[in-house]
Amino acid sequence: MTVLADDLTDKDNAGAALIEAAKKATGLDPVEVGTYRGFQMSVTLEDFGKKYVLTMQGRLRHQATLGSDPRGNLIRLDNALAQMPQRLKAFQTQLDETYHQQEAAKAELGKPFPYEEELRDKTARLIFLDSELNLDANKGGQQEQVVAKSARPSVLDKLRSQPALSRTDKKQKHHEEVR
Asked: At what angle do helices 70-82 and 11-22 cross, to 10 degrees?
């Protein structure tokens, strides 16, 4: 094992050096700490500073949580590497399943859509109903037209052209305004 450029062969010393190197990790950013059995090792501090996670990087990543026991950490690294055949088998099974799904999708692609005629009929009916609704809307009301400001009638002119209110209407109006 190589920890921070030191080649260590004693398990106790290697485990202790690994724990000291892990303390350099201060967050989720990986800190390179050395190599173990050909894998690059990096450490991150996770769970809000509660545990150190060592990642061994080859073609795949293998992770192990570090503890306080130097020999126990080396056993954890060995166990993570020992699980490689099971992980490979799981990945191979997942890959095979993906290939089967791809073949099934290709087979479905060649089949005709069973509701194609019904879809065509309903789409034609929808287009017909939409055009009927639009015709009724245009017949009932006038189409909106953009009118220039100078051509629009003035509201003030309309008010001025109304006959003057009688005297009693003015008193009543004044009384209503005071309330």
From this structure: 90
SS3 label, residue 46: strand
Residue at 82: amino acid letter? A
Task: Please name the helix (run of DSSP H) or strand (run of DSSP E) that holds residue 61, with its range, or none.
Answer: strand 61-66
d(CA 11, CA 17): 10
Read off the tokens for 137: 């809307």
Our CA angle for 115, 121, 122, nearest 5°, is 85
Q: Is 41 helix (H, G, I), strand (E, B) or coil?
A: strand
173 in the Ramachandran plot: left (φ > 0), alpha (ψ -120 to 50) or beta? alpha
Q: Which residues contact 135 (CB under 8 A, 6 or more apart)?
A: none
Q: Rounded to whole angstroms, how far apart are CA atoms 45 and 64? A: 12
Q: Give the three-state DSSP class for 75.
A: helix
Task: Dump strand ranges (E) for the chain.
Answer: 2-3, 6-7, 31-36, 39-46, 51-57, 61-66
pLDDT digits (tens, 9 = 90+) for 40-76: 999 999 888 889 999 999 888 889 999 999 999 999 9
Coil/strand/helix, residue 28: coil
For residues 73 and 8, give the distance between their C-alpha atoms in angstroms, rounded to a whole number.
Answer: 14
